Amino acid sequence: MKPTAKDSYILQDEITGDWAIVAPERMHRPFDIERKKKNNDPFAPTAIPKESIIAKYGRGENEMIVMRNAFPVFRRKRGVTGWQEIVVEGRKIIPFCNSTPARIFNLLEAFNERFKVLRQDSKIKYIQAFKNEGILAGASQPHPHSQIFAVSFVPDRLRDAANRRRAATKRLRMTSHRYSLGLATKERIVFSDKNVIAYANPAARFSYEVRILTRRAVDNLTKTKPEERRSLASAVYALLPLMKKRKMSYNFFFHDVLDEADEHFEIRFTPRSNVWGGFELDTGISVNPVPAEFAAEEYKGSGK
Fold first, then answer.
1. pLDDT at residue 288 is higher than 50
2. N or C: which end of the chain has fewer CB within 10 A?
3. What CATH number belongs to 159-302?
4. Helix crossing, 101-118 with 226-246: angle to 10°?
5. What is the pLDDT of residues 233-254, one digit of tens each?
6. What are the tens digits of pLDDT across the range 204-231?
7. Kindly report the CA angle at 65 between 59 and 70, in degrees rounded to 5?
8. Residues ≥6 apart with Cβ < 8 Å to 135
9. Could you tell me the maximum CA-CA distance found in the chain, to the nearest angstrom?
10. What are residue 46's phi and psi, to 5 degrees?
11. CA 205/CA 284 separation, integer angstroms
12. 186: nearest Cα among 35, 64, 297, 109
């Protein structure tokens, strides 16, 4: 079947094993991150079509509006079943770096509720929530927003990671959660309380990358308690001063592979300060110029 201009489809290179989703409709999505048109905010509450709104969480200025993505990466007719949702964060354009812990908590609550709903779809195998902030991180609009993808397949990279995880836990005689917590040495810790711990990742692909884990081992976000999500929000909030100070673009994300019962939930916070060159693109091996201990010192110093 020859694809039309609006069809999206998934392809795999039989030699390298690389997968790619070709999504022509994404060419038409609006891109106004520099805010040249001051009165053109497609995520303003009055601009969002009522039929696109799926749910609302929270109240007032911190209300989270969940809507359908008008420019999806894929469509069902090309063999990939799934959902793509946008979470519009608040009624006004407030940079995420200026968020309060309460506002971030509201966002996590919206993620939590949507994951509960999407997990009920028997065709869904993988759910990811992510935030892009800044041009280098892939953001296309100044109004802060996040996205949720829920699809009918599991990326090969995650299947490979699961196999490595099982082999490593058997060899090390410990769970992946316990091993990951063990990487949080005193010099790497950025934030900690009784519920969560955040530390600069010693094997980071990107400079200043941080891993945020609950101290209690849980499989996915829907298994966390409200107090743990409040602590997760506080941990994310603790990272923002450095992003604001250095004017960095960044992403944070987490996922749920529904048929993987031995996963542990964590948030990856990845600033985009280093751009991959030819070596990284060809080998997949990143070159990170910032040691984790140095990154942690910067994070802790920026909040003073």
1. yes
2. C
3. 3.30.428.10
4. 120
5. 999 999 999 999 999 999 999 9
6. 888 999 999 999 999 999 999 999 999 9
7. 170
8. 33, 249
9. 59
10. -75, -15
11. 9
12. 297
Span 91-98, average pLDDT: 88
The token duo for 185 is 């040495």
Boundaries of every domain in the chain: 9-151, 159-302
CA distance 135 to 295: 22
Which residues sit opposite 210 in a β-bridge? 200, 269
pTM of the model: 0.85
**What does the pLDDT look like over 12-71, one tens digit per residue?**
555 445 555 555 555 555 545 444 455 578 888 888 889 999 999 988 888 999 998 877
CA distances from 88 to 44, 83, 231, 294 (A): 9, 16, 22, 34
d(CA 67, CA 143): 14
Question: How far apart are alpha carbons 274 and 206 in whole angstroms?
Answer: 6
9-151 topology per CATH: HIT family, subunit A (3.30.428)
Give the model confidence (pLDDT) of 251-271 as tens digits. Answer: 999 999 999 988 999 999 999
Judge if 9-151 and 159-302 fold alike in CATH terms.
yes
Q: Which residues contact 67 (CB under 8 A, 6 or more apart)?
A: 48, 52, 53, 54, 85, 86, 88
Query: What does the chain come to in residues?
Result: 304
